[in-house]
Every structure is written in C-alpha cells, then in structure tokens.
Amino acid sequence: MAVAPLRVMLVDDHALVRSAVRQALVAPDIEVVAEAATAQEVLDVAPRLHPDVLLMDINLPGADGLSLLRELVPRLPDTKIVMLTISEDRRDLLQAMRNGAAGYLTKDLGPDAL
Predict the structure, then answer these.
(1) CA gap 97, 89 in Å, rounded
(2) pLDDT tens-digit series, residues 60-72
(3) Nearest 5°: CA angle at 59, between 81 and 87?
(4) Quick one: how far is CA 96 from the chain centroid?
(5) Mean pLDDT score, 47-57
(6) pLDDT of amino acid 87
(7) Which residues is 81 bridged to in the sheet?
(8) Can you give the three-state secondary structure of the chain, one letter per residue?
(9) Are 11 and 42 a contacting pair, CB within 8 Å?
(10) Residue-range domain boundaries for the chain
(11) What is the dotted CATH code of the domain comprising 6-106?
C-alpha cells in the first residue's frame, strides 16, 4: 500500500522564495498543497486544508509570523509549523519555540537540507 505524500503549505510574502522552496521540495513523497503570501491568506486556507507541515516566514504582511504562529498552533494541532526565515536572531528562535513551532530554519540553508 502506498504511503500518502507529506502535505506542505508554504507561507512567505515573496513569490520568488515560495517558488524556490516549492522547487526544492519536488519529490514523490511531498505535495505542496497551498501557498500564502499574507497572514490572512494562511488563516483562511490552512484550517481548511490541514497540511502536515506549514513552512512559514516570520515577516508577513498583516501580522508577524511569531504572533500568527501562536494563533495557528491551537487551530492546527496536527500540523507541524516550521519557521523558515532570514532571521538568525536567537530571540526570534526562542520566541518561535515558546509559541509552538516544531522547527526553525534559516533561509541560507541549501535546498538538499530543506
């Protein structure tokens, strides 16, 4: 019996970043099910789709990702939310973990690491 692909949602306000991450995730066992560019889009889409993983930037129009994370965690209890950000600030990392992030990746990692 085939294993269902990992369902991923990408959240970043830069279309180029979303496109690059989507390309990096091309694999038979991964399916990018949605993308969002704003806090409102992720709030509208993610609860309907219940992705397995949500990759989200900290800086988004409409809200900062750390506050949005705190709002999403109880609404998506089965979704692993991973911050994917340019910020290497230890305070952001610690706040993300306190707010319920399952992981914290910086955008300078290579595609294979993602």
Answers:
(1) 13
(2) 988 889 999 999 9
(3) 80
(4) 12
(5) 98
(6) 87
(7) 54
(8) CCCCCEEEEEECCCHHHHHHHHHHCCECCEEEEEEECCHHHHHHHHHHHCCCEEEECCEECCEEHHHHHHHHHHHCCCCEEEEEECCCCHHHHHHHHHCCCCEEEECCCCCCCC
(9) yes
(10) 6-106
(11) 3.40.50.2300
Residue 113 has pLDDT above 80, yes or no: no
Beta partners for residue 56, in sequence order: 11, 83
pTM of this prediction? 0.92
- CB of 69 closer than 8 Å to CB of 81: yes
What are the structure tokens assigned to 4, written together? 């269902």
Cβ neighbours of residue 1 under 8 Å, at least 6 residues apart? none
Q: Parallel, antiparallel, or unpaired: how do β-strands 59-60 and 63-64 relate?
A: antiparallel
Average pLDDT over residues 4-25: 96
Predicted local distance difference test score (pLDDT) of residue 70: 95
Q: Which pLDDT band holds residue 114 (cuts at 50, 70, 90)? A: low
- CA distances in angstroms from 50 to 33, 89, 95, 111, listed in the order given: 10, 29, 23, 24
